[in-house]
Amino acid sequence: MKQHGISLIIGGDGQLGESIKGYLLNVGEQFIETTRRKKSISSTRLFLDLSKNIEFWNPPDGVSVVYLCAAMTSIECCARDPIQSELINVHNTLEVAKKCIEKDIFVVFPSTNLVFDGTKPFQKIDDSVSPKTEYGRQKAETEKRLLTLNEKIAIVRFTKIISPRMILINNWMNFLRNKKEINPFSDMVMSPIPHFLAADLLYRVASKRLDGIFQLSGVSDITYEKIAYHIADRIGVERDLIRPIKALESNILIGHIPQYTTLDSTRVIELFNVKIPDSLSAINEVFKI
Q1: pLDDT for 141-169, tens place per residue?
Q2: CATH topology for 6-165+192-218+262-276?
Q3: pTM surpassing 0.90?
Q4: 31 DSSP β-pair partners
Q5: Does residue 251 contact residue 198 with C-beta atoms inside 8 Å?
Q6: Is 133 exposed, middle or buried (0-12, 13-18, 19+ CB in 10 A)?
């Protein structure tokens, strides 16, 4: 299904923005992206820095859909600097949405399972949000405010989106291949979603102008430790290079550790007949191992 008009990707430099760009290129859609890197500005790469005053920014003419991908996504960074991260993740994201709605542009907002506390699996769309991290709180607040603005808004919650750009897994593979020890967390889980599946869902929702909340999740939770052992087996290195640790015993500011990250994906499965790979198959496909 082709969209009409141009897509605007806010935050085209990020992992999800890159995935959406790749998808749109594959289906022959026109798009414009924004970047906060002034040296890379062009006719299709517009400058926009959500950490600054955006009062005088306006979406370009001809845009029909906007994907709000720019965000401070690090849980640690949001916890350390809640004021700056809220400016980016809440205030200025909402300002961009409002400016787009004024020009009749359909708004697509990628969100996260971290709007929930992770105490039960497969959280449903209409469950009450209960964030335990600053990042999750900001996403939940933005969701709430967006839903009061207009019916031309889609919120799409994802569990962990994995792409070939994922620094953690790339570092693991490089260390293991060089016979260096890695320390995956034994007490943290993810339910991974391949980046191309996330981009496909965002495009489908935007193409049909479907409003409301959608959720896409991996089929089950898996520990970071188990993923690390799987990677070692797939690339043919010894498992004794893996020394699991507990997240709370690390030197990284973690905060809340959810017991579960999965979301109920019934709505998107029924609407779009989405086929979600199991966690390890997703790892294999994305990282070509």
Answers
A1: 999 999 999 778 999 999 999 999 999 99
A2: Rossmann fold (3.40.50)
A3: yes
A4: 7
A5: no
A6: buried
